[in-house]
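Researcher: Next entry in the queue.
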Amino acid sequence: MIATTMRRASFCVALLASCVAPAVAQTFGEDPNSALTRHLRTLSEEPRSLSSLLGAGEAALTLGDAQAAATFFARAEEVAPRDGRVKAALGRAFVHMEQPEAALRFFGEALSFGIPEASLAGDRGLAYDMLGQTARAQRDYRLALGGANGDEVRRRLALSLAIGGDRAGALQAIDGQLRRQDRAAWRTRAFVLALTGDVAEAVAGADRAMPGTGAALRPFFDRFVGLDAAGRAMAVHFGHFPKDAAAAPVRVAQATIAPPPLSASRTAAPAPRREQARTPAHSFPEIFSKSRRLPRRRTQKPLRSRRIPSPRLFPELIRRLGSYFYSNLEIFLSIINQISAPENFCFLIVSFIIEREI
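Model: Structure for this entry, 358 residues:
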């Protein structure tokens, strides 16, 4: 019973947090799915098209696939290594991938290449919040309030103020949105109340925003009290709590305010294993590298007799598929053109994995 309640609460807090999670301003006037398809078709003919790489990355980020977005942006960096727009885009992707240290380095490089500070301050503020540096986060949010994504930035500011204990300031920040009956603002208000200790009213507010979720969220609201600033930011923006609260001070201590020199970031000694996955800097993982075509085996076992990969291997398979398809976009497009229903997509992907020995 307890496990079931906690799973239900986990789902509710993730759903509620997703409503106030980082928003990505669309830079195109079309549906992101259509934009992604259009850019992929362009890339199949012009693999080094900078505008299409950036456009595909922005579309993927809007659709919630930060890993795919980072892949496109990394390829764009290969094409234009000194383009500030690419650096800023990589910073946003790493924020969504919950890697604030790497995000701050890219934001610093974007500034050095001439990107206006206000244009990236909203996302840089979130990176600071994830590291527990609320004062710097709030400064950045205020700097970005006049931008195109002002409402979302204002909600982030409210949450940051609440994390710092300023309930009155947090509620004042979203007062205009509450008066407009903005649902996202009411969800933010529930988090503000929970973060500042009024769990009972937070539960009632969650029920108003999403009827029936208040009771399930109460155990999570109660846990806010024992978290540091970085842990609270991760909980409210990404819907989960840190597994090891003791690691938060280490992350804050290791955060860099200004980006290191480009040469230093590439030649620095590797970090301890625990932090290495969170600070990829410029040496991107294998997913960003070009993959080669794998030769077909001369003899293939029948499909039914071959072993289907374990679900535990799915993240690795997805990573390899992303790398393979990006280097072989024509194959990806040919598969997409064969899809007429979701089950067909699953069958085609599994068949492709087995045939190509990915």
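Model: Residues 240 and 323 are 28 Å apart (CA to CA).
Researcher: Noted, moving on.
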